[in-house]
What we know:
Layout: E1 13-14, E2 17-18, H1 29-68, H2 74-94, H3 101-126, H4 134-147, H5 152-172, H6 178-227, H7 238-255, E3 259-266, H8 269-276, H9 278-293, E4 302-307, E5 310-316, H10 320-341, E6 348-355, H11 363-377, E7 384-388
Parallel strand pairs: 6-7
Antiparallel strand pairs: 1-2, 3-5, 3-6, 4-5
Helix pairs in contact: 1-2, 1-3, 2-3, 3-4, 3-5, 4-6, 5-6, 8-9, 9-10
Amino acid sequence: MDVSPGRPYNAKMSGDTPHLRPSLTFPDVDLEAGYIQQRARELRPYLLVTAGIGTLVLALFGVIDHVLGRESTPLLMKLRYGLVLPYGILVLLLSRWISRIRTLVLLYQVYIVMVGLMVLGMMHILGAEGQYYYPGLLLILVFTFTVSGMDMRDALPPAFLLTGTSALYFTLTPLYSYPTRINNLVGLLGTLALGAGGGYMLERLRRLTFLHMEWLKKERNELERLSRTDSLTGLANRRALNEHLEQELKKAERYGIPVSFWMVDLDHFKPFNDTFGHPAGDRALQVLGATLQQFARRAGDLAARYGGDEFAVFLFGCEPEEACRMATSFARKFQETTRQSGPHPLTVSLGVTGGVPPRGLQPTDLIRRADHALYQAKSSPSRVVCEPLSSSWTPEDLPPT
């Protein structure tokens, strides 16, 4: 899914829902890309928190071990406080200037491996007494898969590297007894398996949650679209028209851009509907809507069904003279279309108004001016009447509602 805002999400469907593979990937490329970008936004603060907590715990454990006498040698102190902890602090400090999340993840992976190798080094330096540190090695594996917040593709490399290095060490070292080495190897592999299983389930849950939220978003967008669309013609409905006029009139007024507005009425529609039936009437309305749509193609234009057999067209950046010519052309085209495809040729009446919106012009004012022109068009031979926005008229001139 394009993860930039605005691009619609089209998931390939498996039955009625998008599909999640066992490999923890989405077959739909856009959906997979959307998940990755969302995780990138979520992961940065999460990594910083867990790295900060891990660094603090690492420092505190060093103090505790020193008090208990387990970490009394200068080499161990240098290993913890002179190498690993400074690197962790450096990662935290650099994270503010690291823009690429993959770079931050790589530094985090290196930090995890360094902590694990530090524990392994302590076990080697202390010999048999170093077995105290073995549970810490297991905790690092569990931390990598579950607490760190990384997905499986990021958690597996440091976990495998740490497990492989530790397994090789316990296999070859003579410092521990054979039963202890076997115990450590089995514990490592078991912890790796359990940690990987937990990490897998956590990522699966994250992905399913993301999938559910995207599906809800898609359904919400579809409901919103349907609430703004006329079901018969596919044009915008009256609600969408009012919102569009509100927005575009403000823009036109601010920048001095001309606009034009049509009110369109299908002539003698009720007798036509009564004579040829409702299916023929619906088809006539659909043809009218499709023909109107051909004249509202530019950015800012909108064709809408106003109600019943009345339609409206808003043309952004269109001078009144051009709008009047377009309206006349539309009337001829619609009549010709119904002559060729319908049971009886139909005509339309159009009231057209336009110009640069005067200050404070409301959508209702624009609609009433076009409606005034439409009222006059009903008795005009051309069936099209054009009035600029500066024309003088009063509400009393309007037809009764």
